[in-house]
Amino acid sequence: MFASLPFILTALGITQIVSYGTMLYGISVLAMPMAVDLGWSSTFIYLGFSVSLLVGGIVAKPAARFLERRGGRLTLTIGSLVGSFGLFMLSQTRDQVVYVAAWIVLGLASRLTLYDAAFATLVEFYGLRARRPISILTLFGGLASTIFWPICHYANEAIGWRGAWLVCAASVLVLCTPLHMLMPRHGVVMENGPGENGASPDPEPLVPAEAKSQAILLLGIAFAANAFISTALSAHFIPAVVTMGVSAATAMWIASLRGVFQTLGRFLEMLFGKNLDPFMFANISTGIMVVAFAPLAAGGASTPALLAFSVLFGISLGLITIVRGAVPLVLFGRHGYAGVLASLATPGLIATAAAPTAYAYVLDMWGPVVGFWLMFLVAVMSFGATLALAWRFRKGTS
């Protein structure tokens, strides 16, 4: 039972919802109550979160090496224990040193528990057959904010922000730790997995070993650019379009469509993307982002333009998450997969940490139209990187 694909996917899906919901999304709800109660600026509160992202980038490669040596079960279990301790530290913080230390702990935990570690665990068990399970797993992760934003909100209302962080810590400890411990042990290869016979040999990677660094560089540029866009707009989209003349209520409900279409994009990939050329898949996911920004970069802030943006933006983000997990597997093979994800994650985490402050500066200095032009150009850079990847390495595969 515990070694079956349905159990593994369900267990990892639950733990991704809980881990993302607590370690990444909880701060969105609890930042202001913390700032008011502790007397700290919201800038400092979010600085702690940025420190977590930077730490995640620093420890990404050591964490990947540990996973490759000791396996996903031990890595994920340790990550859950570390994560619950970091969340507990947040609930007890009364000075700034402890607060920053808590985020440092959570930065380490995130590299041991979130998508990259879960993707690598699936590849450990299923090899190249993990592509479809990776796509399915991303559907679970898309629910994290939908579930944990209300949990954190109502917990804060009922028992305060400290109690809310304790709820987060308990969720990780009680739900994630035992589910991770039930994963198959290191070295086990699942014979009955998705798609093909478990005994069949893996096909040759599409990217030859001597060109691996070049391909990783191009993918890293694409992922870092998209991480910058996603994080910057998560923080600033609503106030930016309000300054363009849109009501706050309209901006709010339009922005909320992003999550719905992010999940829809992942679901469509599951239905129609099984045999899609990985280079084409990457081009489509980043190309949609370029199209999404075109009307906003031109200064359009009408409701139809904003609706079209949210729909296309959400679909693009949903697809890019799958690209991040599945395409490297096809391009580079299963061997060293965790290390490849770590190499791809590091620049993206740095971009994510810098994005809110950098984009706020652009908006303050030049306004939202220039800000959307910047996002449009960053999207073009991402699309250009995937086009260059396809031009350099496509071998007529499907």
TrEMBL record:
Question: Where located?
Answer: Membrane
Give TM regions: 43-60, 97-122, 134-151, 163-182, 241-261, 281-299, 305-327, 339-363, 369-391
SUPFAM superfamilies, per this entry?
A: MFS general substrate transporter
Q: Report the GO terms under cellular component.
A: membrane
**UniProt cross-references to InterPro entries, sorted A to Z:** MFS, MFS_Riboflavin_Transporter, MFS_trans_sf
Protein name from the UniProt record: MFS transporter
Give the signal peptide as a residue range, or say none if absent: none
Identify its membrane topology class. Answer: Multi-pass membrane protein
- Chief location of this protein within or outside the cell: membrane
For this UniProt record, the keywords arranged alphabetically read as follows: Membrane, Transmembrane, Transmembrane helix, Transport
Hydrolase as a keyword of this entry, yes or no, is no
Say which species the protein is native to.
Phreatobacter aquaticus
Output the Gene Ontology terms for molecular function: transmembrane transporter activity
